[in-house]
Amino acid sequence: MLSVLRNSAYRRLFTAQVIALVGTGLATVALSLLAYELAGEDASAVLGTAFAIKMVAYVTIAPVIGAVADRIPRRVLMTAMDLIRAGAAAALPFVTEIWQIHVLIFLLQAASAAFTPTFQATVPEILPAERDYTRALSMSRLAYDLESLFSPVLATALLTLVSYDWLFAGTTVGFLASAALIVATALPGPAPIERTGGVRAKALFGTRLFRATPRLRALLALDLAVAAAGAVVLVDTVSLVRGHLDRPAGAVPLALGAYGAGSMVTALLLPRFLQRSTDRAVMLRAAFALPPALAAGTVLTATEPRAWSWPALLAVWATIGAACSAVLTPGGRVIRRSTAAADLPAAFAARFSLSHGCWLLTYPLAGGLATGAGLPLTVLVLAAVSLCAATAAAALWPARDPDRLDHVHPDLPPGHPHLADARPATGGWRHGHHYVIDRLHHRRPGSRSKDDGRCPDRIRRPS
């Protein structure tokens, strides 16, 4: 899997990603301590608002950036976002009011909402081979999981030497280092495309792309299944471990570590599995593993703790982590398969926004239900959400899902460059090729009963 690091451009980008992730992890710890210093016992409310601001920034900013990404060189865009994040992190130690935290968090997360989809859209262009790109996706998943395990440990070690304010300095240095690596990397420029329509139309194109492509609609349903299971782990672990199982505080990171370990093992094995099976088969099987795992979690929360309860929880959390990783990691392959090169930024921005919209739904559901109705009902409800989402994904993603489709163009004039290999047919010109939604192809052939393989003027790409 490490062979992809021989590509110098990807190696620098991956290193920049890892450094920025570690910096973000340090900032998360430092932000908790800062909130406690300013708000005391109300720190949880401050942090809850900060995380809500993060999700709102992700959902709203990413599509807008996707709409204008083709106008800005990617190296310039990602470097600018790193500098904005570094500035926001550097200012956090100097805040004196809670509202200042919220403003800076929005600024930092808005920059992340611009940086991350642009990074995701760049990787498949510098690693065009499917095998290399799959390995890069697994590397990225590993980076996220290792950050969640390593950053708290590093923060704890640093706090024995310096005050928490210096953690923000580490975050700033991380973003500056990421910017320096990106500046030193030659990246592909935006694909040249004609421009009509305003920013709003372009911002909505990624969402329309998902709506018009069955496998992308299924991908969104799979993201909801993951968000339902992940919210249980991330929101309710502390209550389950400390309250229900009556374990010490140190058991909480162990439980979260089991989730991360399951995710990492799966990320390491996925490139081999994806050589033997399709994305659809791997992702759907993993999604349907989530409801039974959550059902087991329901049993754990509804029964009196016994000697087997703690190891059973670790096994369930590891299973959820493995299944979530198997759903999330191949998502980039599905997007690349379904999108024209010029539209990758818009597609990744839409996925970034829509997937975080799922988390914006399941986070408060996991927290609110646990407080008002108890853990057993909370886990059961989110298991039902996960099952419904996985079932919807299976229904939305056709078992027979070829890339090449024959279709008719009724609206292109004879001699159009796109019709070079087409033949006359009833009502237009027929040919076949790798089919994606773009400026000339507005919806999938056969998507409606009266379609007859045509490409009618229904969903237009803001070209």
Automatic annotation (TrEMBL):
This is MFS transporter. The keyword Isomerase does not apply. InterPro entries: MFS, MFS_trans_sf. It comes from the Bacteria. It comes from Streptomyces virginiae. The chain crosses the membrane at residues 12-34, 46-69, 167-187, 218-238, 250-270, 282-302, 308-328, 340-362, 374-397. Keywords: Cell membrane, Membrane, Transmembrane, Transmembrane helix. CDD domains: MFS_MefA_like (cd06173). Residues 440-463 are annotated as: Disordered.
